[in-house]
Amino acid sequence: MAQALVFGRVTADFEVKLGAKQNPYVRFDIAENIGRGQYARTQFWQVVAFGHDAESLGRAKVKKGSLVWIAGGAELESFVKRDGITKDKRLKLMLNEWGFVPNGRAKDVSDAPKPVSEDNAAPQQAAIIDGEREPLPG
User: What's the pTM value of the predicted model, to 2 decimals?
Assistant: First the structure.
């Protein structure tokens, strides 16, 4: 699974729920601004978190408008819209780590804490990918 680091604003308030086996989970969307000038646009990600990660989002009072960074596994997921007929695709992020963006600036990647590997090695900065070159497959 591809890994991604996304900076964006939470689009709606959410609550931590319990799954069938009483495991906490949360699902919410974040809006990421990408591109500049006439190429500026908003890209939406659906974020899913389980267990301790879901509970920490609730305890931190993440809500609509919160500016956060999310690191996790990314995938392009097919789904059927609420009308039950229309098929579409969405970007989904399975949360591994998260935090509030310091100073409220989403554009400065250097301000965000960097994930640390499990063996406590020095943090590494993720490569920045230019997403304006080719559209995702439809």
Answer: 0.69
